[in-house]
Write a structure and sequence with these properties.
Radius of gyration: 15 Å
Order of helices and strands: EHEHHEHEHHEH
Strand order of the largest sheet: 2-3-1-4-5
Mean pLDDT: 89
Helix content: 40-55%
Low-confidence stretches: 165-170
Strand content: 5-15%
Largest sheet: 5 strands, parallel
Shape: globular
Number of helices: 7
Distance between the termini: 11 Å
Length: 170
């Protein structure tokens, strides 16, 4: 199983992802680590990414997911997956479960102001919110509000995902 934590910057994807993966003894990857250098530089300079910019990034994440699923490995992936077509591209198997971490713009701005050393800054939040296509009910995405502690978010995810025998690493 692969749990893909999605949402805009500041929702806690990396923090929650590390905690969830740690509790489950699963692999964890941060989608930000798979951006080409040119994408990181654009974002660092406050330039929103285009679909063309995101294409090689999404392909790298798709290959990563396949590399986990093929041998039956469990993992958590933190990835913005802002548009429905991005999520469709990453949902390569029924083994991929999406969790949308949702927060108010005010909360997200507050979190981004407090974050240092990350290329995604507060000024980029508006472009992400404009790009975001919130998951539709037909996508079967678990929605979790991030106005709670990371531990509470992880507990909510664990309770609400489909029960499976793969909740421990094999």
């Amino acid at each position: 199983m692969v749990i893909l934590l999605m949402g805009v910057s500041g929702t806690g994807k990396t923090t929650v992802g590390h905690l969830l993966a740690s509790e489950l003894c699963w692999d964890f990857a941060d989608g930000d680590d798979y951006h080409p250098a040119a994408n990181v530089e654009k974002m660092r300079n406050g330039i929103p990414l285009t679909d063309a910019d995101r294409d090689p990034w999404l392909e790298a994440l798709r290959q990563l997911i396949a590399a986990w699923i093929d041998p039956g490995k469990n993992a958590v992936l933190a990835c913005s997956a802002l548009k429905g077509r991005y999520r469709d591209r990453l949902r390569i198997s029924p083994e991929v479960h999406l969790v949308y971490l949702r927060g108010t713009p005010e909360l997200l701005q507050q979190r981004l102001r407090a974050r240092h050393g990350h290329f995604m800054t507060e000024r980029m939040l508006n472009s992400q919110l404009e790009t975001l296509e919130e998951p539709e009910q037909s996508e079967h995405v678990l929605v979790v509000d991030v106005d709670q502690s990371p531990a509470q978010i992880v507990a909510e995810i664990r309770v609400n995902l489909p029960p499976t025998e793969t909740w421990t690493q094999h």
